[in-house]
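Suppose you are handed a protein chain with no further information: no name, no annotation, nothing but its sequence. What can you learn? This example shows the usual starting point.
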Amino acid sequence: METSTFDPTRAVVFDLTRGQVALEGGGNLLLVPTDVMATACSQLDATIVRQLGSALGKQAGARARPRLTPASATLEAIVEQLGGELSLGGFGALSIERWGQALVARIEGYPLAGQGQELLAGFIEGALLVLTEREVTAFPLERTPQSLRLLLCSRQAATKVKGWLLSGSSWGDALANLQSARHDVGGRL
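A reasonable first move is to predict its three-dimensional structure. Written in structure tokens, the prediction is:
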């Protein structure tokens, strides 16, 4: 088994003398309790929450990008780096599921799954934009109290899936419909 290229050593720096916390390669942070963030996510407009997530994701992508070379930027390497960045931020553990040609990001242990799906979707979109130089829509498919599944696809594909879900299809059936409709489902990150 390959060893991980994500190295969290010294990734979080606590400067107690100055009263600051920072991520290596990033600016200062505020440590915010998840219940406070959940309240903010539930009270703010979804577009604003997604924009906040996108800003966080772009910063994470910028930290991860130097660790990837064009030759090493495989799907597995991107998932490993993005997963490490998500973990550092306390967002949970990332895995990718393949559903035919569709890619679905599954995040386990996400502390805001009930209220913060737009925050996480924006984070994934922003990070992937920086890491792959492609616009990808992270469309929420399923949420449980501790996990989320996000379809990684084009905006057009997300619109189709949303329509199928609103008409009563399960998300599995919507992904099957997407395969047969031959939409860009994001299978080439």
